[in-house]
Amino acid sequence: MKLLIINGPNLNLLGVREKSIYGTESFKSYYEQLKLDFPDLELTYYQSNVEGELINKLHELGFSYDGIIINAGAYTHTSVAIRDAIAGVKTPVVEVHISNTLTREDFRHKSIIGPVCKGCIMGFGLESYKLAIHSFLN
Fold first, then answer.
1. Helix (H, G, I), strand (E, B) or coil at 101
2. How many CB atoms lie within 10 A of CB 118?
3. 98 by DSSP, 3-state: which?
4. Catalytic one among 22, 46, 75, 129?
5. Pair 15, 4: CB distance under 8 Å
């Protein structure tokens, strides 16, 4: 099974930024652990702070992978273009968030991409990604 993990803006700063919300571990080290935890999966990781690059990656791999896990960061709440890209590919997508966005600022309560995703997992820290992987395995 081939799964793509996409992280959007500012998630390259995990382990450094707002540790009380996002924790102290970098995504790079967490990703290495995911690969060890799921040795039979082909995991691919991509991160960009640029909306168009995220869309290009969805277009590039959204027809050949078995699943996509996306944390679109702030684009979750603003990007009709990313929503349209998710809707336009055949690969199912699971939306993830490290924090529970419903307990944060009001503008984070609405996901534009959520309605075109298979599901949403939020609030479990980095383990949200592992839960998303399990959603494709079950």
1. helix
2. 16
3. coil
4. 22
5. no
Residue from 45, 65, 97, 129 carrying the catalytic annotation? 97
Tokens of 79: 């990007």
Contact 22, 98 (CB under 8 A): yes
The answer to whether residue 97 is catalytic is: yes
- What's the pLDDT tens digit per position in 103-129? 677 866 789 999 999 999 999 999 999
Residue 134 bears catalytic tag? no
Q: 101, 118, 117, 99: which is closest to 109 by C-alpha?
A: 101
Evaluate whether 35 touches 43 at the Cβ level (below 8 Å): yes
Give the total residue count for the chain: 138
Nearest to 95 by CA among 107, 105, 108, 25: 108
Q: Angle at which helices 51-61 and 80-88 pack, to 10 degrees?
A: 0
Nearest-5° Cα angle at 43, 41 to 45: 170
Model-wide pTM > 0.90 = yes
Domains of the chain: 2-137 (3.40.50.9100)
| Segment 7-25, tens digit of pLDDT | 999 898 877 766 676 667 7
